[in-house]
Amino acid sequence: MIVVKVGGSAGIDYDAVCADIAARWKNGERLILVHGGSGETNRVAEALGHPPRFVTSPSGYTSRFTDRQTLEIFEMVYCGKMNKGIVERLQRLGVNAVGLSGLDGRIFEGRHKDSVRAVENGKVKVLRGDHTGTVEKVNTGLIDLLLAGGYLPVLTPPASSYDGVAINVDGDRAAAALAVALKADALLLLSNVPGLLRAYPDESSLIREIPAADVENYLEFAQDRMKKKVLGAAEAVQGGVRRVIFGDARHGQPVSAALGGQGTVVS
Ligand SMILES: Nc1ncnc2c1ncn2[C@@H]1O[C@H](COP(=O)(O)OP(=O)(O)OP(=O)(O)O)[C@@H](O)[C@H]1O
Questions:
Q1: Which of 5, 56, 226, 230 has the most ligand 1 atoms within 8 A of CB, as the residue to mutate?
Q2: Rounded to the nearest whole angstrom, what is the distance from the C-alpha of residue 9 to the centroid of ligand 1?
Q3: Neighbours of 169 (CB within 10 A)
Q4: For the whole model, what pTM was predicted?
Q5: Which of 44, 102, 226, 266 has the fewest Cβ atoms within 10 Å of its own Cβ atom?
């Protein structure tokens, strides 16, 4: 089983990702696709007059402050436009894909964090009314049913809180939790960069290999949102996934290239 997470940043070629996945699926490979949607969510939020607000925690992690209206815009884009766009592509390629959020069947479950500590103008503030959390539990029952029926699951945040409230969760870490729960052979984190760069944005500074035991030491190279990917990779390898690859989803055959060792391989 391979878990592929494709991001939602500008420049990602979803046609290329879906064509590659469809070919491999038809060849008998078992795959699950998880996707993001941050770039489009930012655009739609601006257009709807509720611009995105990103906050940085005292430990340096950036996240989207998700009030109720932001959560609804997030769902429109992630579960609507992005998810159905990917499912449509796969259906046109002859793959019977089913798109679900983590809320459906409580596939992704975690604690609802209603407040977040954020550094603003050098001061730490507590912001309330946040609808965020982290995936702590993956309920694989529905996924097992879909796979047994020959359907390719296409999953996206949000997740469900233990009380059934929709929460915005990081897609990379959700995909990592899924890969652990399914005992996947590999987790691919595909985005609009060649992999983890030692000197971002210099693409020639690609880090090709990271020993699994060392992955947390590479957090220092990741800025802002890339940190969550490195953290997700650490969680996946610590949970028993043998290979995590940060790969490029901008062109070519992104899944096959990553599985062939291009990008940053954590093993
Ligand atoms: N050292 C680094 N190497 C590579 N990319 C980095 C690095 N530091 C920061 N980045 C940034 O991290 C981004 C990838 O993370 P991001 O969460 O935006 O991607 P995504 O997975 O495509 O999005 P989504 O949240 O929609 O799933 C890159 O586009 C790049 O700008």
A1: 226
A2: 7
A3: 25
A4: 0.97
A5: 44
pLDDT band at 61 (very low <50, low <70, confident <90, very high): confident
pLDDT band, very low/low/confident/very high, at 114 (cuts 50, 70, 90): very high
Centre of ligand 1 from the C-alpha of residue 225, in Å: 5
* 184: pLDDT strictly greater than 90: yes
Q: Is 121 annotated as a binding residue?
A: no
Q: Are 101 and 152 in contact (CB under 8 A)?
A: no
Residue 8 CA: which ligand 1 atom is closest? Answer: 26
- CATH classification number, 2-43+68-107+134-266, choose in 3.40.50.300, 3.40.1160.10, 3.40.50.1100, 3.90.1150.10: 3.40.1160.10
Cα atoms found within 13 Å of the Cα of residue 12, Cβ hemisphere only: 25
Tell me if residue 187 falls in helix, strand or coil: strand
Average confidence score pLDDT of the chain? 97
21-60 pLDDT, tens digit per residue, is 999 999 999 999 999 999 999 999 999 999 999 999 998 8
Ligand 1 atom nearest to CA at 195: 4
Is 168 labelled a binding residue?
Answer: yes
ipTM, interface predicted TM-score of the complex:
0.96
pLDDT band at 173 (very low <50, low <70, confident <90, very high): very high
- Which protein residues are within 6 Å of ligand 1, measured from CB? 7-9, 36-38, 171, 191-193, 196-197, 200, 221-226
User: 191 to each of 35, 71, 150, 229, how far by Cα in Å?
Assistant: 10, 23, 27, 10
Q: Sheet harboring 186-191: ordered strands across?
A: 97-101, 152-156, 31-35, 2-6, 186-191, 243-248, 264-266, 209-210
